[in-house]
Amino acid sequence: MRLLATATALPPTTESAEEIAKAIGKSHAWVRERAGVVRRHTATRETASQLGAQAAVQALGKAGFEAADLGWIFCGSATSDQSIPGNAALLQTEIGKSARGIPCLDVGMTCLGFVAGLHVAEQFFRGGLRKPILLVCSDIASVGTHPKRLQEYCLFGDGAAAVVLSPDGPPLHAAFQTFGQFSELCELPAGGSRKHPSRGAKPDDFLFHMDGPKLFRAVVDRFPQFLSHFLAEHETRVEDIDWLVPHQASRHAIDSLSNQVGFGTDRRIDIFSTHGNQVSASIPTALHLGIQSGRILSGQRILLAVTSAGVSFGAALLEHT
Fold this sequence. Notes:
Layout: E1 2-9, E2 14-16, H1 17-24, H2 28-35, E3 39-41, H3 48-63, E4 72-75, H4 87-95, E5 104-106, H5 113-126, E6 133-139, H6 150-155, E7 159-166, E8 173-178, E9 186-187, E10 209-210, H7 212-220, H8 223-233, E11 243-246, H9 251-261, H10 272-275, H11 282-292, E12 301-308, E13 312-319
Parallel strand pairs: 4-5, 4-6, 11-12
Antiparallel strand pairs: 1-7, 2-3, 6-7, 8-13, 9-10, 12-13
């Protein structure tokens, strides 16, 4: 599998640490030090499918394709425009007439949407698909947070990223684990059949909930071992990897993972301070910026490392070509 092109799209509206601080009644120093966010992009009227389509059109243009040339459209959004249909179909509509008729698939693993999408795409290519796949991850996390929930409100930013994949190039190695017993530590409870307006759901149930300390402990006790086993299985040492692209979960999470696994700041792509946690769009946005800036070069090996709601882990080894 080969990444033919990458692109991103961001809402034009930005919030500085000072503006975030004003909304929550804290100092801008508190936001910078405790949350680690200097600025972030926040959607006002944009939807996840609209933002995703902007990134998709850019990526297709860079790759030299029309949407009609695609074999599939994959969408990894965690914050879909609506419950039904999934965002992949809505994304197709936003891309335009040339995308009509192209089959669409939603890859729903929240922050793991991009890595899961890469893995599914490679399986399609191994199964004989010869046309390119468009993988789009787009999230508007700001609609699910509230200033009174300081921990969640300060962390998230909005954005989208897209990649065009072709059925050639070096292999992708990926692995996943899920520990469902920790699901309640990171959730948006309402919107499904369990907590619904007709079943007494409250307004607060429609906001994102996270128990940061317990979630961090659940991850830190398991994720390093998961990554170590993954690398050993593929006979890869940390020294063999040129770049770590971690999920931009939080300042603390990025630093902790890097230190535990053995990556210094000179070998990781870190965009958290300027983008926040963009959920599924975090990894592909960081990957795009790493390539665009000239830091990630052709032939270099990249480790994508992600934790998500579920609680799920994911990792992928790929070579940039």
